[in-house]
Structure formats: structure tokens, C-alpha cells
Amino acid sequence: MKSDKKLPLEIYKDGELVYRADKNMVSQYNDWLEHFKNKYPKSKITTKGEIMAQGYCVKCKVKREMKDVEEVTMKNGRKANKGVCPTCSTKMFCIKGK
Known about the structure:
2 domains, 3-stranded antiparallel β-sheet, 8 strands
């Protein structure tokens, strides 16, 4: 049975990795996802593709989750997230760690 999901499958709780499935555990992935959503109802449970990047909005002067996030690589090779503030639609940029 082939899976259309890309490996590794990851589940995040409030931005922290809590579970990673490899090719042997694909069938258990959905069970774990439901488990974490039920165990932590007030926390933000996301998968690898759903992660929202946070950045500082200069116009609002608040740290927010960006919308329309795009991962870019800068000239020096470091990765960064580029997006838009959901409140004021100002462009936002967040440089990731190494």
C-alpha cells in the first residue's frame, strides 16, 4: 500500500515537534494526530505542511503568525520565511536558524 504523504510525517504542538513517523509508522500517523488533538485541546496541533511561521510586524509592532508564508533562501544560503501580516497586510520576513 503506497502513501501519498511525504515522509517523514511530523506533528507539532505549539511549534515544537512532538511526533515523527517514518515509513514503518505511516498507518499509525492519523491515530497519533487525533491523540494529540484530544490530549491538548487548547494547544495548537499542526502537521509539517500546516506550520504557520511567526514574524514581527513593524507596522503593528507585534509578533504574529504570517499568512501566505513562502520559504525562501537568501544569498548567503540561509533559509527565511516571507509572508504577510494578517491584520494590516504589511510584508513580513523572518530569518530561520542554521
